[in-house]
Write a structure and sequence with these properties.
The complex is a heterodimer of chains A (about 260) and B (about 40). Chain A contains nine helices and ten strands. Chain A is α/β, with parallel strands linked by helices and about 260 residues long. In chain A, the strands form three sheets. Chain A has a five-stranded parallel β-sheet with strand order 5-4-3-10-9. Chain A has a three-stranded parallel β-sheet with strand order 6-7-8. In chain A, helix 3 (about 90-100) packs parallel to helix 4. Chain A starts with a helix and ends in an 18-residue tail after the last helix. Helix content of chain B is about 0%, strand content about 40%. Chain B is built from no helices and three strands. A three-stranded antiparallel β-sheet of chain B has the order 2-1-3, with no helix packed on it. The N and C termini of chain B lie far apart (about 30 Å). Classes of the chains: A alpha/beta (about 260), B mainly beta (about 40). Chains A and B meet through strand 4 and helix 3 of A and strand 1 and strand 3 of B. Strand 4 of chain A pairs antiparallel with strand 3 (about 35-40) of chain B.
């Protein structure tokens, strides 16, 4: 029997450190106009893994609803990030705090170099990856699209390597598909595109390269209509994945007739 | 303090206090307490 779209998508699973997922879109929870809209967007995107951050409790806002009032940790795998950390030690501390909530031992490790570029500090990132892997975290490491760095992170035990398509929040898409191809050829662990996608077509392009999944936040949260964009991203992610699995035709210089030219 | 205890992580003098150890903690004057919770992020 011919497989339906639904069957194709639900059977096409992947694993991160032994945990199985179906949705290939990971969605951030930052920068939405309201938490209610964020919850709707997460639902619409079909995501199973959502990134979250850790910050000090503001005691002046006591009694207000918190993020966890809008995200059910039983429904989503929470992926706490170490955003805003500029050293391995800071990132490791934040990972420890995240695990102490008892909600998740996943960590999206990002150790940044400077605020303007938000590019990762490769040396500190490698060091922190090594430490957190040894401490039993499920480590998904944000990195640049450098194939050598990606390889070293895998060697350090990263459970997923997540090169940026382009700078965080820049919406420029995948700027260097060739680097992503080289990373995919070399690495055995899951490779995700994390950061930089701006539109549905960017997600489709990333998925067509063969990455396991795409992680995004701003592209939905700052779209004029975030909910519509969440649906678009879900469809683009599935379309890109299917296109990758289906295998595209090679690009040719000259025309190839689709209609027989003989036997009129 | 008006925060739900199950949604925050507490640090005393930069040491994380595991949830089940909280009742045993005795605070002294000058202790630095941090309360941390999940917020939106990418």
């Amino acid at each position: 029997m011919t497989a339906t779209l639904n069957q194709l998508m639900t059977q096409d699973t992947y694993q991160i450190n032994g945990k199985t997922f179906t949705s290939r879109l990971l969605v951030g929870t930052g920068k939405y106009p309201t938490n209610e809209l964020m919850r709707e967007c997460l639902e619409a995107s079909g995501t199973e893994i959502v990134t979250v951050a850790l910050r000090r409790v503001n005691l002046e806002n006591k009694g207000e609803k918190t993020l966890l009032d809008f995200i059910d940790p039983k429904k989503y795998t929470l992926l706490p990030n170490t955003a805003g950390c500029y050293s391995a030690a800071e990132a490791i501390r934040v990972a420890h705090l995240a695990r102490a909530t008892g909600i998740s031992d996943f960590v999206k490790l990002e150790v940044l170099f400077d605020e303007k570029t938000l590019l990762p500090d490769p040396i500190a990132t490698l060091e922190a990856t090594s430490v957190l892997v040894k401490e039993g975290f499920t480590v998904m490491t944000y990195t640049s699209d450098d194939p050598v760095m990606a390889h070293k992170l895998e060697q350090a035990g990263a459970h997923a390597v997540m090169p940026a398509g382009s700078p965080i929040g820049s919406g420029q898409g995948v700027l260097n598909p060739n680097n992503i191809r080289i990373i995919l050829e070399k690495l055995k662990c899951p490779v995700l595109i994390d950061a930089g996608v701006g539109s549905a077509s960017d997600v489709a392009v990333a998925m067509e390269l063969g990455v396991v999944a795409v992680l995004l936040n701003t592209a939905i949260a700052h779209a004029k209509d975030p909910l519509k964009m969440a649906y678009a991203m879900k469809n683009a992610c599935e379309a890109g994945r299917l296109s990758y699995l289906a295998g595209r035709i090679p690009k040719k210089l000259y025309a190839q007739a689709s209609t027989p030219l003989k036997d009129f | 303090l008006g925060v739900r205890k199950e949604t925050v992580v507490a640090e005393v003098n930069r040491q994380i206090i595991q949830m089940d150890k909280r009742p045993e903690i005795k605070l002294s004057n000058g202790d630095q307490i941090e309360l941390i919770q999940f917020v939106g992020g990418g």
